[in-house]
Amino acid sequence: MAALSTARRDEIIEGLAQRMHRWGLQTPAIFFLEAHKPFGFLGSQLLLFAQPLVGFFLADSLVRDVALLLEGPGSLEQLIGRLEELARTSDSDPGDD
Quick check: is 1 in a domain? Predict the structure, then answer.
């Protein structure tokens, strides 16, 4: 399977990070990703295996792209970094109340 382009990888990471931020789940997502980082490749394969079922809820291309994102060695680190950045920004923003 072909690797993700850098632009597409960054787009997916930004979308996931912004969604977690909107839902207020940056901290739990960071803990989950840190704890399961060694299983990224296994998770990507499981996602590809479940693609026919997950395809009912999400576009096949998105499922494939997220699976490729999980395969990438630095992608999870980049996602965690972006989540941490958003968490710091929201903690220092007094207008959020």
Answer: no
Q: Are 65 and 8 in contact (CB under 8 A)?
A: yes
How many independent structural domains does the chain possess?
1
Residue 96 domain-assigned?
Answer: no
* Spatial contact of 35 and 64, defined as CB atoms under 8 Å apart: no
Do residues 65 and 12 touch, judged by C-beta distance below 8 A?
yes
E strands, the chain, where? none
Residue 32 included in any domain: yes
- For 23-35, the pLDDT digits (tens) are 999 999 999 999 9
The residues, any chain, with a CB within 8 Å of residue 64's CB and separated by 6 or more, are 1, 48, 51
What are the pLDDT digits (tens) for 46-87? 988 998 898 888 888 888 888 888 887 789 999 999 999 998
pTM score: 0.80
Cα 35 from Cα 84, distance rounded (Å): 15
